[in-house]
Design brief:
There is one protein chain. It is built from one helix and three strands. The chain has a three-stranded antiparallel beta sheet with strand order 1-2-3, covered by helices on one side.
Length: about 80
């Protein structure tokens, strides 16, 4: 799977320190016609910060994307 960061939104916390508010990532995987893609939002909930590494961001984005897909398919089968 491939992960592309589309936007990073920083914010100042209560103590005036710059921190990550959100990071929007585009995740794509597979080969046409069996491919899928979508956007995920990462942040503190996924333990992503402004100093996170590329591999940390990729792992978090792929994990969240797979989780979102699994939820969508489980809702369709109920």
């Amino acid at each position: 799977m491939e992960v592309t960061i589309n936007s990073i939104t920083p914010k100042f916390n209560d103590t005036g320190i710059l921190e990550l508010d959100s990071m929007i990532c585009y995740v794509t995987g597979g080969v046409y016609p069996d491919n899928t893609s979508g956007y995920v939002s990462l942040g503190a909930t996924e333990n992503i910060t402004l100093t996170s590494t590329k591999s940390e961001v990729e792992a978090a984005a792929i994990t969240k994307f797979k989780s979102n897909v699994a939820v969508l398919f489980s809702e369709k089968t109920e």
